[in-house]
Amino acid sequence: MSKQGKVIGWCMFDVASSAYLMLTAIFAVVFAKVIVVNRDYGYSNFIWSLLIVAANLIAAIMGPPLGAWADSEHKHKLFLIISSGVCIITTAALYFVIPGQVALASILVIVSYLAYSLSENFISSFLSHVAGPRETGWVSGLGWGVGYVGGLAAIATFYMVTRFDFSAENLDAVQLLGPLAAAFFLVAAIPTFLLVPQFRDRPAARSSYAQLLRVFASIAKFPDLAKFLISFFLFQGALNIFAGFAAVYADQAVGLSGGWQAAWFISLQLSAGAGAVVFGKLQDRWGGLRIINLTLIIWLASTASLIAGGLSPQGWSDSKLWFIIATNAAGACMGATQASSRTVIVLFTPAGKEGELFGFWGLAGKLSAVFAIFLFGLAQLYFDLTIALILCAVMFAAGLILNQYIDEERGKRTAATHQI
Fold this sequence. Notes:
This protein is mainly alpha-helical.
């Protein structure tokens, strides 16, 4: 397979999974307005947060051993196909959920989100094998960028079917969201399954939990990697909150609906896609860590403006356009922050340990989601959505501060000269 074909195949998975990400953002709104009946938004949002927490906690437990198993048996591609298939099937099954069926909705959301999360671990482990050392930033950013193009297509499809009327009166259309997202995922992922080959670096011993504990202990030999994983835990927690609750905030606090809501979703995809590609290109010149720090500064400024707007006496009643501008500034950094993080992990990882280290990267991300989303759910339950945003600002700031103690060049040298 040509290098170009591998890159195309790898990037297409970001296109495929974008439909699921769009669905989860929208289904959070549907869950509160349609599925959970006779309850206030605070309660419904908290239940939704528990579902995402549960999925991430299970993924955090399963990710490292599955990654180690994939490394030892060279089964990254097989596990990618299986996890994608489970996500597609359970997403399509959301069609059968009707108002009041909270238990069924909860099971399907947890299983589909778990499978999606694991698939992200496996596809990330292929990055260093489809892109050269000087191209990882560009290819990673390209994946995120074209993923947002996929998100645009998914949004357009969802809007044509539902007109973004997420109410019980429009249930027949709302029920089609899951099958549409599943079909999109399946079709767009086919190039990945066909064009990206399984890689084989060298034979490895069968992995076990004991080996994983040894790997965890040996991370101390990689101080920059260890510090970055902690930083990633902090700022990724805030990103998880935005990804999981931005649509909820727009619907419940700002009052976006219908055409306004569709325009907001579209603008976010455009700004995020452009940001991922532009920052990805700059990353190969400036370094991944510098790009992450720049995006965290923008995240902080955007979050502060959202808090100020939500706490103002008039609220968002006359400031919908400002909300769209502020969230688009943050959206331009969404793909860039995550793509740069993925690249830094690649650069800090010894050859042949991609599966295990991406398992731990996934572990940090999943545990951060468990921590941050649970706290956010509690905060909005007892206060409101705007006050809960303060948690995001704190986590962005803490990650940015810790990054000042990481040396990217030293981290790459350590990965090249040390083994786990």
